[in-house]
Design brief:
mainly alpha, DNA polymerase, domain 1, 2 domains, elongated
């Protein structure tokens, strides 16, 4: 007779609904900072909600790339997207360590690139309304108004130069 066929173990290739909670707890318990726990918990919850909202076959690299595209379409900042992807990568790593996901799939997920960051935000940036409000108060006869009127162009030049140098 022929060789006996062995059924493939597909349960390791797909992440079932009860499993994300177990992996999520493992990720959160591995973090030291309460702030990191809070951010990772939010990010993992957002990913699981998105993952369960659309029909998916398996938790793999393609799904994480689609999730990154979803985050980009929402207009989130690059730092926010990269932070959420880091939580998803950590979730995949914990799923692989728990035996719920194959190490090859976890390695593929860990290779999903983040969004390129051009420069960084520093300080408090003014909105258009706040800028116009500052300019309204910069005119006047007082010494403070004259000083503000003279300093405002310097601030704009520094902000413009900082943006052009960083990105």
């Amino acid at each position: 007779m022929g060789k006996q066929r062995i059924k493939p173990n597909y349960c390791r290739r797909a992440l079932r609904l009860p499993d994300p909670d177990h992996c999520k707890l493992a990720v959160l318990n591995s973090l030291g900072s309460p702030a990191s726990r809070r951010v990772y918990e939010y990010s993992i919850d957002q990913f699981i909600a998105w993952y369960c909202s659309e029909p998916r076959l398996a938790f793999n690299r393609i799904v994480v790339v689609r999730y990154r595209m979803h985050l980009e379409s929402r207009g989130l900042a690059a730092n926010t997207i990269n932070q959420q992807l880091a939580a998803v990568r950590r979730l995949a790593h914990e799923a692989a360590d728990s035996g719920l996901l194959s190490p090859e799939l976890a390695a593929g997920i860990s290779r999903v690139k983040g969004v390129k960051q051009l420069g960084f935000r520093s300080g408090n940036w003014l909105s258009a309304e706040q800028s116009s409000e500052v300019l309204k108060h910069a005119y006047g006869d007082s010494m403070r108004a004259k000083r503000d009127l003279q300093c405002w162009p310097c601030c704009l030049v520094v902000a413009y130069a900082d943006r052009s140098w960083s990105g």
